[in-house]
Amino acid sequence: MTPIPKGAQPIIDARKRGMKPDELVLVSLIGPIAEANHTVFVNPNGAYDWRWVIGLQLCLMVNAQTRQAARDMLLAIGKDSPAQLHAWNVDQFKGARVVVLPNPADIEKPRASWRWSMEFEPWSDFDNDNFAWSP
Q1: Contact status, residue 91 vs residue 103, Cβ threshold 8 Å
Q2: CB 3.0 to 4.6 Å from 84: which of 14, 57, 58, 99, for a disulfide?
Q3: In this predicted model, what pLDDT tens digit does every residue of 5-16 receive, in sequence order?
Q4: pTM beyond 0.85
C-alpha cells in the first residue's frame, strides 16, 4: 500500500464527511513552513498516494535541493486531477502553474497505459510578488 503524505489524513477525513479545504493546500518538499494553510510534508524520494487531491488546489514548495525530485512529484500529483497545481521555488521567489495531461493518442486506451506530459506556465511578476509565502 502506498503511503499518504504526512499531514494529509485530516484532509482525507474531512473529504469523507463531504468537506474540502477552500484554500491552497501546500505540499512541502522543504520541511516545516510557517503558514496557516493546510500543509502536507513529503520526502523528495518518496512515492505517495495522491488520490485525495482530486479537485483541490495545491502548491508544491521546492528549493534548489529538491527541484529535481519536484518534477516527478508534480507528475505524480497531477495524474490524480487536482483542480489546480502550482510549484513555488522558495529560493528564486518564482512560481508556475503546472498542467499535467495525457497524450491525446492514449485517451482510448486504459488509463494505466497513458503516457503523460507536463507543462509549466510561469506566474506573472505580479503573482510572484504577491504570493503569500516567504521564508
Answers
A1: no
A2: 57
A3: 999 999 999 999
A4: yes
